[in-house]
Amino acid sequence: MSRLALTSLTLSHFRSHALARLRFDGRPVAIWGPNGAGKTNILEALSLLSPGRGLRRAAADEMVRRPDGPGWMIAAMLETPSQTHELKTWAEPGAARQVSIDTKAAPQVALGRLLRMLWLVPSMDRLWIEGADGRRRFLDRIALSFEPAHAEASLAYDKAMRERNRLLKDMVTDAHWYLALEAKMAEAGAAITRNRTAALARIAAATEGAETAFPAARLALLSNDEHPETHEDLAPVLADNRRRDMAAGRTLIGPHRADLGAVWAAKDIPAAQCSTGEQKALLISLILANARALAEDTGAAPILLLDEVAAHLDASRRSALYDEICALGAQAFMTGTGAELFADLGDRAQRLEVVEQDGASAVRPD
């Protein structure tokens, strides 16, 4: 199988890192150090090499190192099966994030066509027991990993919906103001649902028959409301629902109302009713299935960002996770509070220690 790997990462004035220059050799990377040292900041920087707002969903001006404040920059070299690319993303004070690929300005969605990236962070441990918003974002990250154009469909849908919601709040009743917006929502919404459905099918196929120490999950696309999935159906339903939407001041029907359902297949138990450890194992199972499917589809395993991945895992599952990552050939960046958490990786991984030094994060090889 071909390799997809980052070979270098440079951070400038990003979060707790004044300046960091890191080199990678394609193996998994174990990053350890005390809480607050700046480990997760490295993973967040890596996540910004994909479309979107990164694993913390932070605004651009929240990422700059204080009190310096001149703006921040992330640069990396990416080796793909066909060539090497220079990636860079940055933000100046008060400005939106910018991206360049091989020194040329590029939209964020172009990053998704070069590298596929999956992540798991501690806040996702409560995914199955909190609101549907987080599960939709999780599902859309899966869909985006298979279909980079999913980001464009989501942006188009959200933009049209915001404009429609503005009309609803202003109590506009003239149908002509709504028709074009509802047509755009219907078209983009149909693409969103197709991408989500296709992604769940790929996850199911990658899960079936896989040899893994983690429990398999059955996933389903759910909805709080009945909402059509095709361009032809959604537009007239939106039109029929305007009076109800106007009373609510927002659009009540569409893929933005969807939810992701999950059941532990072997026990036939909804994920929300599983123990904390079981919910974590289910999440890891889905990330691994997503990675297996992408490796099959693209010929290269995606890059994995696993923050505090050892939490809630016993020693045997932790070892099994490392074995599966290495079997995939994935470059995984993993964080933990102690080097002992990664002992089972042996020489299969690089190790970096992150410490606080002179008021900033410092990274050194272990």
What's the helix and strand layout?
Blueprint: E1 5-14, E2 17-23, E3 29-32, H1 39-47, E4 72-79, E5 84-91, E6 98-101, E7 104-105, H2 109-114, E8 117-120, H3 132-146, H4 150-169, H5 176-207, E9 217-223, H6 231-240, H7 242-248, E10 258-264, E11 269-270, H8 276-298, E12 303-306, H9 315-328, E13 332-336, E14 350-357, E15 360-365
Parallel strand pairs: 3-13, 3-14, 8-12, 12-13
Antiparallel strand pairs: 1-2, 1-4, 4-5, 5-6, 6-7, 9-10, 10-11, 14-15
Helix pairs in contact: 3-5, 4-5, 4-7, 5-6, 5-8, 8-9
| Shape field | globular
Unreliable sequence segments: none
Provide the number of structural domains: 2
- Percent strand equals 15-25%
Can I get a quick summary?
This protein is α/β, with parallel strands linked by helices. The protein has helices spanning 39-47, 109-114, 132-146, 150-169, 176-207, 231-240, 242-248, 276-298, 315-328, and strands spanning 5-14, 17-23, 29-32, 72-79, 84-91, 98-101, 104-105, 117-120, 217-223, 258-264, 269-270, 303-306, 332-336, 350-357, 360-365.
